[in-house]
Design a protein that fits this description.
This protein has 323 residues and is of the alpha/beta class. It is built from 11 helices and 9 strands. Helix content is 43%, strand content 14%. The strands form 2 sheets. Strands 1, 2, 5, 6, 7, 8 and 9 form a 7-stranded mixed β-sheet that branches. Strand 3 and strand 4 form a beta hairpin. The chain is globular, with a radius of gyration of 26 Å.
């Protein structure tokens, strides 16, 4: 509620205060526009495809007119592994020189001119995705250019007054482009599925749907639980196979070539594994320290070997292992 109220305040009166901040931070020597000089086009349309097309049209018309324009919650489309993802920035400003600037409005405070670094970083990554989507539209619009600096608007100190900062997102743009090119495309995943596989719940039975889901490889991580409806299914599969991904991506990264809990325990006990492998060396060192600690405490040798790793699925075991 606080965020919505702050955003409404920033965009009040046709975005006068917002454009004033943008002109001060990014406008150079150009004066801010007068209230009546700003166009605020209507972006309403039927469905996401209609809204996306209406946004693209409004951006082209604003660029051709050579004036100021404020697009309030435009809808953009970005191709993600062959499938369109619809994105809705807080605002996009079109300047008379044809430059498009993404505006992110956040409710966290900017105290003494600086905000929480983690929150600013998250806002920069979010804005980078918007800029990539805008670049697709700009490529079809003569004279348009998308800026690689975005305007972050936040409450000033402990008040509800808006202040702004310019965020350079060139690094986030580069990282996001690289990540998008490395994603496996939907067509490639579909081509590897058995003939006739469908995920249409109106055309197949429960057994057929389960079989279709089982045909797709799972890449589970504990973070999936907060974002994906199939996370519990993939977690069960990861636990059944003893995959170390069930303990978290950071644990998986530290273990290198050891991909199962069985292999990890075997390497820690000295039964298998390359003694020169840093992961194996660390596991054996941890196992030795654990044995030494248990010997001093009088606990049985098998106590707490790897919490969560060897517990049965559904037993409420934690997601991360503790050696």
């Amino acid at each position: 509620m606080r965020g919505n109220a702050f955003e409404a305040k920033v965009k009040a009166d046709g975005g006068t205060e917002l454009l004033q901040l943008l002109a001060e931070r990014l406008g150079g020597e150009a004066p801010p526009p007068a209230p009546g000089e700003v166009s605020v086009p209507d972006l309403s349309a039927a469905g996401p495809e209609g809204r996306t097309a209406r946004t693209a049209l409004a951006l082209r018309e604003a660029t051709e007119s050579g004036g100021w324009a404020l697009l309030d919650h435009p809808l953009l489309a970005l191709d993600v592994a062959g499938s369109p993802a619809y994105l809705e920035p807080d605002a996009v400003v079109v300047r008379p020189d044809g430059r498009w600037t993404v505006v992110e409005i956040k409710s966290f405070p900017m105290i003494d001119g600086s905000a929480d670094a983690a929150k600013v970083g998250a806002a920069a990554r979010q804005a980078a995705v918007y800029v990539l989507a805008l670049e697709r539209v700009a490529g079809r619009t003569p004279g348009a250019e998308v800026g690689d600096r975005v305007l972050l608007v936040c409450p000033k100190d402990f008040s509800n007054l808006p202040t702004a900062s310019v965020v350079d997102i060139r690094k986030q743009l580069s990282v996001t482009r690289r990540q998008l090119t490395r994603l496996t495309r939907v067509e490639d995943i579909a081509s590897a599925l058995p003939e006739g596989t469908t995920f249409d719940v109106t055309r197949c039975s429960g057994a057929e749907l389960t079989s279709a889901v089982e045909a797709v490889p799972a890449a589970y991580a504990p973070e999936c639980l907060s974002a994906c409806e199939l996370s519990f299914h993939c977690r069960d599969r990861a636990r059944e196979s003893g995959a170390v991904e069930a303990l978290g991506r950071s644990v998986r990264g530290e273990l290198g070539a050891l991909t199962t809990v069985t292999a990890v325990l075997s390497a820690a006990h000295g039964d298998t594994g390359d003694p020169g492998d840093p992961a194996v060396m660390a596991l054996r060192r941890a196992a030795a320290l654990r044995a030494e600690a248990l010997a001093g405490s009088g606990a049985p040798p098998g106590a707490g070997a790897l919490v969560g790793a060897d517990a049965p699925a559904g037993a409420g075991a934690p997601e991360r292992g503790v050696g």
